[in-house]
Amino acid sequence: MRLTARSRRALFATVTGSTLVLTGCGNGDSGSASTDSVSLGFVNGGDTNFHSCLQKAVEGQAKTAGAKVYTANSHQNAGTELSNIEDMISRNVSALIVQTVNVDALKGDIAKAKASGIPIYLTSVSTSDADDILGAAVVDLKKVGSLDAGWIAQDAGTKPVQVGIVAGAPGAASDLLVGGFKGALPATAKVVANQPGMFNPAKAQDVAENMIQANPDLDYAFVANEEMAFAVRKAFDAAGAKDVKIVTVNGTDEGLTAVKSGEFSATVANSAKTIGETAVKNAVGLLGKEKVDKIANIPLLLVTEDNLSEAPQYCPR
């Protein structure tokens, strides 16, 4: 990894045929002593509320640290992600922060970056070999799913119940969430439907409409994020299935309000603000050879109506 001073770049850059956006962050009053020469490339994975809040957190913390940050969005496409990685490499950034669209895509991403001498810092997930990366701000996504499953187990008791799953997009976060959820369900809970909502509320609503029609005795639904969960709730209510209990993921202000009102029974707080800020702080610290955790574990909290006040802030304001 290189820490030599970088050439000054224009604040406004014209990028043709690319999703790349430049955000110029001036030198702040705090942060590492060498951050005036640090530039970070942030490759975001998608367009959900989580991704938007994650980017806000990355940009805000970079500004505080006095580092430049360049951002790009892969829109849930592994090919676009690799192209964005290549664009960032061409800018000769100090390090890449990547919210991947698919863990299978990381092998190519890391190989490209390593060949160019630019380290990668991952958000949400890590790799099996931490020597390949600068570091990671890791969310135990299997645990997220298991926390929601644990709530169902406690609520259902010994009663046999039917469970539906509205997953996200195949790969990366969704597969880990669903795997953790299914693995922690009690033997008395039968998964009767498991379909991807692609992290798209309109798609999730269609999935939910078909799910409740095919399974009118459904008791619970696990939905891979709150944006989809609102659409699933709408579909279930319209079908006369208001008694189906929904557990989900994120911990947004809107999600917490839905838990308070009973629209959702539980959500797992997984703060995009914390993830993004941790990624920038630790990436800059690791570049500067500071004593920083290479792998940082993001705190998780199962939120119900009983502990709403304990939920962390989800999105930078």
Question: What profile does the largest beta sheet have?
Answer: 7 strands, mixed
Strand content: 15-25%
Shape: elongated
Percentage of residues assigned to helices: 25-40%
How are strands sequenced across the largest beta sheet?
A: 1-3-2-4-5-6-12
How confident is the prediction overall: mean pLDDT? Answer: 89
**Radius of gyration based on Cα positions:** 20 Å
Pick out the low-confidence regions. Answer: 1-34
Provide a count of the helices: 9
Q: Strand tally, please?
A: 13
- The arrangement of helices and strands along the chain is EEHEHEHEEHEHEHEHEHEHEE
Quickly give the structural class.
alpha/beta
Cα(first) to Cα(last) distance is: 33 Å
How would you describe this protein?
38% of the residues lie in helices and 20% in strands. The protein contains 9 helices and 13 strands. It has helices at 49-65, 78-90, 106-115, 141-156, 173-184, 201-214, 226-238, 253-261, 272-287; strands at 21-23, 39-44, 68-73, 95-98, 120-124, 135-138, 161-167, 189-196, 220-223, 245-250, 266-269, 295-297, 301-303. α8 links the parallel β10 and β11. α1 (49-65) runs parallel beside α9 and α2 (78-90) packs parallel to α3 (106-115).
Give a nutshell description of this structure.
The protein contains nine helices and 13 strands. With 317 residues, the chain is of the alpha/beta class. Strand 7, helix 5 (173-184) and strand 8 form a beta-alpha-beta unit.
